Amino acid sequence: MEHIQKLAAIRAAMTAQHIDAYIIPSSDPHISEYLPDRFKAIAWTSGFTGSAGTLVITQDFAGLWTDARYFVQGKDQLENTGFELVKLKSQGKAEFVEWLGEKFEKGSTVAFDGNLTSLLLAKTIQSELEPIGIQINGSVDLLDAIWENRPALPTATAYLIHPDTTGQDTISKIAAIRRDMQKARTQAHIISSLDDLAWTLNIRGNDVPCNPVVLGFLVIEQEKTTLFIDSKKLSAADQSELTNAHVTIEAYENVHQYIAGLRVEQLLIDPKRTCYSVYESIPSDINIIEQTNPSTFLKAVKNPTEVNLSRETMLKDGVALTRFFKWLEENVQSGELTEMSIADQLQSFRAAQPGFVDISFDTIAGYKEHGALPHYKATTKSDAKLEADGLLLVDSGGQYTSGTTDITRVVSLGNITAEEKEDYTIVLKGMIDGSLAIFPHGTRGYQIDAITRKPIWETLRNYGHGTGHGVGFFLNVHEGPHTFNPSNVDIAVEEGMISSIEPGLYREGAYGIRIENLVLSRMLSHNEFGDFMDFETLTVCYIDTDLVNKSLLDAKHIDWLNNYNAWTYNQLAPLLDAEEQEWLKGKTQAI
């Protein structure tokens, strides 16, 4: 079916079930950012392939609510589908709920599939619409009956990884979670989010592209831990190891029945990371405590083993990136390179490194105007041919058994304008200011965001995405609970967190600039004024100086840039051959 036909079929089903508005979030039963094919409902329904958005369908309107990262992409992909782009004013806000409240009157019905809707979103919908007489039905799946050849649940193999890699065994991780459960005075805890499950059990899988996770639920009780998973994914040896860690394995599909049979006084769930249907399965006599998963905080603070392996991983990635940019420079004049072909080549350089498993997200290789799309992914239709002219933005990362990487660089392919240099230099100033930040313990991510944006704001420029995010250890490239963005998220930056710093500037239809490194937050000093922290830069890859307008930089920025590039050369040179060393030496010369 074409998207117009799918929309008509959904509307017919809505009429049959007396539904006035139907909501389709970008999600799955685990409230994941990146989805197995079975749950890519927005892409199937509307053609939009971005990782963040919500469809709202009524009989006279169908819209995609998404944020600034996807405005251009959304407008392009929704053309002639029957869906319209609705631009969010604030990233992550459910602004469509207010729209529904204004559009519909008392007695109307708004529905959604509770398997694809977080408890937090469901409660937002209920709290804003039910008081004005709009009925809510959170148990409606209108897509399954009309989704021909819908993909099945993934069946890829899962596997356990050794505590020598993770720095902590499963028994001690579950014990740590139970201690937090006791503080919350809860006797049971449901973990739905896949990266929390993976961290807790030291398990990895291949159920979601670029994210080494496996579909499952975990229920931790005072004396019992139960994993709900397709057991065929695990070897007999791994099942035995889980049993030795006092983990019982049950069928994936039995989780709702098991939850319905729980007999405890208080239960802990994370409303952002638990779907509404799981919440609905909890017996009504259980008092529900809604908090962030304890494992989310525990996972965000990397232990010494994870930190040391992450440093080693950055060297592997740095070697791959050095070889890639050298290859790119030597071949761009051939006229044969395209955005898709260079993404493939970059992946091949990474794949040659020890421990490489996969890319950590779809590579963003945006040439000229495509670089202005923050989450651009080249397709056979859009695949631009590179020339020795203009700017190329490459945002990429790798999943290694020893860690996860995420890096963005912009390079000149030739004939750069003064405006491009100015924009590049201003973004670089922001990235350096964020990297150089010294801040008291307890600082929140929005404060780091403001420090990073300050030199950009001073030029009356800005960017529409966050400044940074947490990064997992051989896990999801986007990891909570902290984030560096303007939102007033009340979570402190803690010692041991790995985060990105990635300011940008985008000129629609012309080019985009983003420069990104990963940093480790660390304790710097303790004195009579308190504890102070700073960042250790982890990413090891030269920053192009051909694009720098030195007159726009202060001495501290010039010193940081020169020291960083010199450090990059010293770190990578022993791992490169003589020709590669010579090339990188030229790229890291002081300005």
Please render the helix and strand layout as text.
Blueprint: H1 3-16, E1 21-25, H2 41-46, E2 54-58, E3 62-66, H3 71-77, E4 84-87, H4 95-103, E5 109-112, H5 119-129, E6 135-137, E7 159-160, H6 163-166, H7 170-183, E8 188-191, H8 194-201, E9 203-204, E10 217-221, E11 225-228, H9 236-244, E12 247-250, H10 255-260, E13 266-269, H11 276-281, E14 287-290, H12 294-300, H13 304-331, H14 339-351, E15 356-359, E16 364-367, E17 390-396, E18 398-400, E19 403-404, E20 407-414, H15 418-435, E21 439-440, H16 445-457, E22 468-470, E23 479-484, E24 498-501, E25 504-507, E26 511-514, E27 517-527, E28 530-537, H17 555-572, H18 578-587
Parallel strand pairs: 1-5, 3-4, 5-6, 8-13, 11-12, 13-14
Antiparallel strand pairs: 1-2, 2-3, 7-9, 8-10, 10-11, 15-18, 16-17, 17-20, 18-19, 21-28, 22-23, 24-27, 25-26, 27-28
